Amino acid sequence: MIRDLFVVVVLNVLSINMLYAYSGPDRIIPAPVEYTLSEGVYSLKCDGSDVKIYLSSPDFARKVENLPDYAKEEAYALSVGKKGVKIYALTDEGAFRGRQALEQMRLLDKDVRYCEIFDYPRFRHRGIMLDESRSFKGKAFILKQIDALALLRMNVLHLHLTDAAGWRIQIDAYPNLTDHVAWRRGEVYHEWEAMGYPFTNADDPQAYGGFYTKDDIREIVAYAAERHIDIIPEIEMPGHSMEVNRAYPELSCVGPDGKPRPFSWDLCVGNDQTIRFLETVLEEVMELFPYKYIHIGGDEAVKKDWEVCVNCQRRMKEEGMSDKSGLQGYLVRHIEKFLRERGKIIIGWDEIVETGLPEQATVMSWRGTPGGIKASSMGHDVIMSPNTYVYLDYYQDLIKKEPRAVGHLQSLRHVYSYDPVEGISPEYHHHILGLQGNLWCELIPYPSHAEYMLYPRAFAIAEIGWTPQDKREFFAFRERALALIQVFRSLGYSTFDLTNETLKAQTGRLRFDGFPL
Ligand code: ACM
Ligand code: ZN
Prior knowledge:
Elements: H1 2-17, E1 34-43, E2 51-54, H2 58-64, H3 69-74, E3 76-81, E4 84-89, H4 92-108, E5 111-119, E6 125-131, H5 138-151, E7 156-160, E8 162-163, E9 166-167, H6 176-179, E10 183-185, H7 189-194, E11 207-209, H8 214-226, E12 230-237, H9 242-247, H10 272-288, E13 293-297, H11 310-318, H12 325-340, E14 345-349, E15 362-365, H13 370-377, E16 382-384, E17 394-395, E18 406-409, H14 412-416, E19 432-439, H15 447-454, H16 457-466, H17 474-490, H18 503-507
Parallel strand pairs: 2-4, 6-7, 6-19, 7-12, 12-13, 13-14, 14-15, 15-16, 16-19, 17-18
Antiparallel strand pairs: 1-5, 3-4, 3-5, 8-9, 10-11
Helix pairs in contact: 5-8, 10-12
The structure holds acetamide and zinc ion (ZN).
């Protein structure tokens, strides 16, 4: 503790006045796998005319031949010398990652040390999730965050597009989703909740919300593709779906009075029309997102109305289910088969582990790490996004100093301390596809606030996902983060003020649950 405190104080004093004369691979995030520095400095041209890309170098091919395929594709080598910059890669994706490493160096300082870099990612999935349902931030915000992810050599943006607080994607077969439940009274989620969940129309002067048209989605997907970032759309089911019941009450569970329950939190799994609804929505979603993964939610179903709904009760009897949770497993298996037959793989939150995991399902572990540990030991691929480390809606500094947030303290150091294979037996490490930081937005109504919660903690997630574990060191990372924050600010991002972080958060003396000791 005393040693940590000493290191923090010394580094803080140094960093305030530390003026780097040059940029180089020792200053970027994520830290490269290997680099060497040599005498000399090259002044980068801003137009990129001094960068040469080589995609068919036999020497480079030999260098990467023993890497896993996903790492080969993103690998690059980069050299800066007196004649300019050379980037070697096997693919456009690898060359792009190299160009982004260079761009980060240029943004830090256009004078770059002569260097040689050889670099590739530790994990194939390095992502951020944005919750567009609870607060719709719109296309310009999303494109701006895609630029940030690219600069951090991340490759996945997961969009939480549907939830009780608003449906955010145009679906032609079901226009009520965007005509009636994409707009609400109450800019802040909790105001809307306190008012009894009122939805409204777009032309109401007090309407908050919005949705992505199909053209918006095509634009976002194309923009992300140019930056070698995949978008994972999430269509929630069966929980977190009150907005669907409000838009189409005939799809909801039926109460003992024989009437629909549009305020039900969950979809009615007993109603065949509800299942047709989901299939139709997913057909339209698949046309827009050309990737192998579709996230189907699966978390936090309340299951209360299923106990009284005649349709759900009939389904349970027909399928021989003794427990209402069987309905969730039934739906997940049905949708997984529907999507698998169309060439897609489902991702679900870790609750899906409990109700009979379909063969190909990939699990996103969020209730800490146990769901991911279990699923990987059952032979399933896993993306780690534990709320014990990488929930970016949680406090990043002491509660008294921060805007209202969720949960406990997840300071930069706490996030950085995470290793995605922690607790996973080595024989299952290959099932850990990577990690993701999740930014739920119940308490985050504005884009600038969202960026404040994202940066610099997304820097830590990028480095955990890319840099080998034995090359990660927090205090060196923190120095690089301080400089990159300045770059992000100059590019117009809001960030947390790391220079004013309290010592308690910096020293990282946290209880198991993340609270400061
Ligand atoms: C979640 O945080 N409910 C996935
Ligand atoms: Zn029902």
